[in-house]
Write a structure and sequence with these properties.
The protein is of the alpha/beta class. It is built from 15 helices and 14 strands. It has an eight-stranded mixed sheet with strand order 5-4-3-2-1-6-8-7, with helices on both faces. A six-stranded mixed sheet has the order 11-10-9-12-14-13, with helices on both faces. The chain binds adenosine monophosphate.
Length: 404
């Protein structure tokens, strides 16, 4: 099945055209700084993926997608010459609220429910919905699927998802914990079960998605029972530029002291905090590791804090589950940084998570899922490579295949 994956962000668009049978990517597209006069979009086609850059200044995310479709039907390098050759569209949706517990085919009812979810992710969901509407008009006969970041976490029990706030805020505004990165946690858990050679339903797993954003999930017998992200993706771990959990009183304190607005605080907590805020060298972990190696003490502190918060989250989920068979590392940092994995697990050996240094350092097989703990480690440690677009394409294929 040829699936167009659309991953619309607040100011970005990622898209791929994927042949699901052979798991082959035929087109890749990335638009950044969307909505500004500096917006650009790169599009490349298999087999060599030579990037061509397009000016998409002042266009919306949906208009960028429209432009991508034009290029895909006009460019001689493109694997398609007409939109009819696309079998299905898979849309990544950040927030599905309490309306969507799994991926959904977008019919009129689902589309109406998507509207209700917009207030839960006001930066992301409206852009995705606009793309869906544009595609429904342009390709009315092509099935579209919504794949939700939150869906995997809808199995959390109330004691994990409720905030200790006045009850009315849950009833009126649906303020509760929803989590995120659900597709990645679900995939990481399944891949770990494959590595361990045991059914997912028999296992207790702690999955760690450590990228620019980061979250950790307790997956008990295949179900998410708790996760570190909350009402929004700001809660939980320290991240590239996000603060993660802090004392909420700090927010009102800074607002009073400096006369900051709500928008200022959104910007500070989401864009200027976390690893970037502490290190002063930005939120990209590679740069921070390099700066720390060169003796930058703030960069070293940022790494120390980052590692410590991950250790505490893993420890708390060990306590939350009835059993822990493995800890699973995925996403940019989790997959690629042997150094950070070593620092994280150096503090967790007493809980029975014992890293094998050689297996951890082994880089000859990048891209392969593997176990990196010693043979008799009571709790295994796994590395799983994530590929969000491919996972969305597969979920789309699964759902669309059921209706044909
Ligand atoms: P993601 O959001 O999953 O793309 O992950 C991006 C993050 O992974 C950035 O902070 C990168 O610096 C980090 N990253 C990627 N490769 C490495 C590496 N080899 N060592 C350390 N961090 C890495």
């Amino acid at each position: 099945m040829l699936v167009l994956v659309v991953n619309a962000g607040s100011s970005s668009l990622k898209s791929q055209l994927i042949e699901t049978e052979g798991k082959v990517t035929r087109m890749k597209c990335l638009a950044e700084k969307v909505g500004t006069d500096q917006a650009y979009m790169t599009i490349s086609f298999a087999p060599d993926f030579a990037k061509v850059t397009y000016n998409v200044a002042d266009m919306s995310v949906a208009q960028c997608l429209r432009k991508l479709l034009d290029v895909m039907t006009d460019d001689p390098e493109s694997p398609i010459s007409g939109l009819g050759q696309i079998d299905a569209v898979g849309n990544r949706i950040v927030a599905g609220g309490e309306y969507f517990t799994k991926a959904a085919l977008i019919d009129d009812e689902a589309r109406a429910n998507l509207d209700k979810c917009e207030e839960l992710a006001p930066l992301h969901n409206p852009a995705a919905d606009a793309c869906i509407d544009m595609l429904r008009e342009l390709m009315p006969d092509t099935p579209q699927v919504a794949v939700f970041d939150t869906a995997f976490h809808t199995t959390m029990p109330p004691k994990a998802y409720m905030y200790p706030l006045p009850w009315q805020y849950y009833e009126e505004y649906h303020i509760r914990r929803y989590g995120a990165h659900g597709t990645s946690h679900r995939y990481a858990a399944q891949q770990a079960a494959n590595l361990l050679g045991r059914p997912l339903r028999d296992l207790g797993l702690i999955t760690c998605h450590l990228g620019n954003g980061g979250s950790i999930t307790a997956v008990n017998h295949g179900k998410s029972i708790d996760t570190t992200m909350g009402f929004t993706p700001l809660e939980g771990l320290m991240m590239g530029t996000r603060s993660g959990s802090i004392d909420p009183a700090i927010v009102t304190y800074i607002m009073r002291r400096e006369g900051k607005t709500f928008d200022d605080m959104d910007e500070i907590l989401n864009k200027e905090s976390g690893i970037a805020g502490i290190s002063g060298v930005g939120g990209d972990m590679r740069d921070v590791l390099e700066a720390a190696d060169a003796g930058n003490r703030r960069a070293e502190l940022a790494i120390d804090m980052y590692v410590y918060k991950i250790q505490k989250a893993i420890g708390s989920y060990y306590a939350a589950m009835t059993r822990t068979d493995a800890v699973v590392m995925t996403a940019g940092i989790g997959e690629n940084s042997a150094k950070l994995r070593e620092r994280i697990f150096a503090g967790l050996a007493h809980m029975g998570m014992i890293l094998d240094k050689e297996r951890n350092d082994f880089t000859g097989q990048i891209g392969a899922n593997r176990i990196i703990s010693i043979d008799d480690s009571p709790i295994r440690i796994c590395v799983v490579t994530t590929d969000e677009e491919m996972r969305i394409a597969r979920e789309t294929d699964n759902l669309v295949s059921q209706i044909h």
